[in-house]
Amino acid sequence: MDKYIWLIPILPLAGFIINGIGRNTLSKAVVGFIGSLMVLISFGISVAVFFQVKAAGSEFHGFNVSLFNWFSAGSVKISFSFLIDQLSAIMLLIITGVGFLIHLYSVGYMKDDAGFAKFFAYLNLFIFFMLLLVMGSNYLIMFIGWEGVGLCSYLLIGFWYTNPDYADAAKKAFIMNRIGDLGFIIAIFLIMVVFGSANFADVFKLASTKDFASAPFTLITILLFVGAVGKSAQLPLFTWLPDAMAGPTPVSALIHAATMVTAGVYMIARSNILFTLAPVTMHIVAVVGLTTAVIAALIALTQTDIKKVLAYSTVSQLGYMFLGLGVGAYTGAFFHVLTHAFFKALLFLGAGSVIHAMSNEQDMRNMGGLKGKLKITFITMLIGTLAISGIPPFAGFFSKDEILAHTFMHSTPMYVIGVITAMFTAFYMFRMLFLTFYGKFRGTHEQEHHLHESPPSMTIPLVVLAILSIVGGFIGRPESLGGHHWLEHFLAPVFAKSAPLLVTPELSNSTEITLMCISVGAAVLAILYAYFKYIKNAHVPVTDTEERPALVDISYHKFYIDELYDTIIRKPLDALSVFFYKVIDKMGIDGIVNGLGRGTVDASKGLRLLQTGNVGFYIFMMVVGIISILMYILFKA
Amino acid sequence: METLTKTIQGVPLNHYILLCSIIFSIGVIGVLIRRNAIVIFMSVELMLNSVNLLLTAFSVYRGDATGQVFVFFVMALAAAEVAVGLAIIVMIYRNTNSVDINVLNRLKW
Amino acid sequence: MTVSILIFLPVIAALAVLLFKNDAAKHAALTFSVAELAVALFFLSKFIPNADVQFAIDVPWIAKMGIYFNAGIDGISMMMVLLTTVLVPLIILTTYKHQYKNAGAFYALILFMQAGLLVVFTALDGFLFYVGWEAALIPIYFICSLWGGENRIRITLKFFIYTFSGSLFMLVGIIYLYLQTPSKTYDLFQFYNLALDAHHQVFVFWAFFLAFAIKMPLFPLHTWQPDTYTEAPSAGTMLLSGIMLKMGIYGVIRWMIPNAPLGFFQWQSMTIMLAVIGIGYASIIAFKQNDGKRLVAYSSIAHVGLIAAGIFVWNIEGLQGAMIQMLSHGINVIGMFFIWDIITRRLGTREISSLGGIAKVAPKFAIAFLIIVLGTVALPLTNGFVGEFLLLSSVFQWNIYMVTAAGLTMIFGAVYMLRMYKKVMHGETNALTITFTDISGSETLVLSIICALIIIMGIYPQPILHISEASVTHLFNIVNPKFPQLK
Questions:
Q1: Domain with B46 in it
Q2: Of residues A613, A616, A619, nearest to B108 (C-beta)
Q3: pLDDT along chain B (109 residues), means of 10
Q4: Tally of structural domains, chain B
Q5: 3-state secondary structure of C67
């Protein structure tokens, strides 16, 4: 099997090249077919790989597939090689599986767009880089994928680049990611210096030995975490993700919900032993994750753009994942990556279906009552909403509760905040659902006329994802609910080194069930509140011109964080740029340089006056000169 | 020849040196203080000739002809110089109607 | 087969091209430069990648003064020769849509400059090195001052005096070393064997440092560069930025540090500091530049700052990174200046703020521009990444604060490059940019070659690194024992 591993990333790359070159000649059907097929074949191979890994049992620690020596210089030796183990096998399934569904969906969603082939080429390229990210067997290959997905994200957010706001959003995403990437790359340098290698296998093997007990784990992991913060949109670098909704909706589903943004979680889960050895960083990760979850949920409460609500909910759910990582629930966090990929992709695609039906309207204030017209979309979105709200037996319930249970063992206040955030989540998600699908239609007459259910190529992925959102959680059904947590056992070899170091008190089944009841109860309460507010009272958020209560206003304006960054970072840097250029460069340094030149000219102008032109004076000076030379010679002796 | 040498040696060398110094100084002072180009020119000749006189005197006293050979060179040179110099002065006079060197103040940048 | 073929072919070519006019001169120049590339590739095929000097020529020139025509190619020189011979045909090709007056003279000067550059990169004799150094300066002076923009005379004079004063210091340094050699020779390897005390080495270090720092240019000796790049004709800018500034870097590697290791060691932290300051300083200035060429000029200062910093830390990663980054930077910066040349020729302006929406009317151009931008911001799998990674990992070995400061280039580079790309290419077209026609003919050819090089070098850089590996290690072994306390 390992002989064909390289095909998994290469096929989407081939799709990118074919569609890229044939973007003006191939018909849309061919383009869509090639783009989807490549990912589908990759998915097929990934399934085979997955079963092979599964069959290998719990003593299996992954195999390396080395392709070629990428570059080497001095002590730096980087080989282009892949690592397939339990963690990457599951990620492969998510990326190619969800990726394929989204390709399929895009065939319908993008069919009227002039850049159809370009879109598929970019999507394929994204899949390629994402696969590199999870398959890389060392930090450098991971970094290729890491930056590559950032590039694709840039290209796809700016897909409709003629709109300057969209182009700005793309630029912002790339730059914010780059801030994280700097942390990541410095972490790689540090790892290479400390462990003498960037290979996962070498680094993790050495890290847990006694010789490296004093290694700067805290610094390494904080730097890695900076990278994760950028890519996974955590505080303080999360503002790019909501803006990234400028891209076409399938992109938001694939890149900004299901796969790319979870790369940070993947990276930390991959480096789990390093983080486990750095308790300080773990604490920071947990706090940052929790804070992000709360802040993003607070913002999501008042947003009126359907995609923005989903974007902030993504940020919030990512915060949960980091909370899980921070409290040592690596499996839980990764479990949430998995279930989140299902229901969030579903929600985004559902939102895309709504937007499609509404002739590109995204404002929920102009929707309402779509339940009857978009039946499949409504039902699937309802499933997704229940899943994200943590209602059993939908997927989100299991993963979220695993994280919350671990948080409870870690610290009670954090648990309480986590549950409150879960309440917010349930509230704003149902608010979105109610505003969109219930009540009276609030759009224009023309929009109402055009309302239609989406074509099968769009609804099939919705249905598949909805099914996954229902059953996906059962792979991690805890013992307290009669399961045996298959995922935890499957991933155990990946986290084997960390497990003995993470001593957490065992949670009794009854406590666990109590905790579940609390969070489910909280969610139900929130849903009921949303029901009364938006269905019983038919409340509709105010238009932009009307006054809002102060707290609502702050939330609606995203805590003014963008404005804050603008004031404290962008503007000072721009001012500094002008200052450096005009004052230091032009006046200062160039002034000195030109001053030297001018000084020479001025000096010569002054000395020139000695040449009076008067012959008598010349003769006099000549005689004086001769006499002084004679005097000098005379008196030297 | 013999008598001529004797006659020259009849005057002490110091007197020659003194005379030449005086003539040379007159030349220098003439160059410095006079404004008429021709007079300056003559003063330069005066200096040259004072040196010539001195060379001859030493030559005789030391019985070495090299000094006299040198005098001939100087005289040839002076003749050439006079030819060129006077030509220049004539040209200046034609152009400016004057041989006053203070009129010539354009020799500057 | 000796290196003299490589050096004298462009000279002969320059004389031959003088005879042609207009288009014929272009074609002749291109043919000769491609022939030169073929010769270089032939040398490459015969080149054994070890530390030896190959294809050497060593004949007495002014033997009484110890001056020999002594040149040869080792791994480091091979990289520089490749850089020169690959880029010159590309540069000539970029001028295909221009009609220069006195085209014969123009192309002859380019070829003559190539000869000078090749002398610099292969010389093993101090005097020959200096001759090549100045021989490369004279043609570019005329190219800029005869075919440049409005302020060309003033700016070019400044450039000339600036670099010339630097190289005079270098001449003093070379002569000083010459006087110290026991057999009174300019031979580079004899210079290496000199064991001067630290005090005297400091003077040698400064003499070389000033020349090379001006050429690169290093902060704060850089102010000639943006002006000159802006005023020079595009081909001149490409020659300056693509190849000529590498003379300074090459000089540091081959002439400055090995000849004055102790002197360098005393000032090492200052040099690194200057290089790193230059990175941040130039990047920040590039944020708000409205003139496209000037923006690229400042970005070039930042990139060269990183190369310099990587070398000054003095380890193999840094040197190898510098080698590949010189090649990459040459390719990328030529691409970038060509992009601006195309825009300027079509629309008559370099003002970023007056552009916008070009991607819509010129998709091929947009792709090429984007790939070059990505190469410049060092995205993995483009040529910029490997070099930048190695250079940063070299700076990291100095200390972590310095690498953080130097690494800002990753962020700042993305900021100014993407800002520029967005303002030029994205958004709606305006009355001016609607007239933009997509690239064609020679433009497509050049940009395709550049884009292909960017990607191929990014995916498989190892063969290129391999060329210089042995020589760099060898150089390292010569110099390192001389350092008193090696970090």
A1: 2-103
A2: A613
A3: 80 91 92 87 92 92 89 93 92 87 73
A4: 1
A5: strand
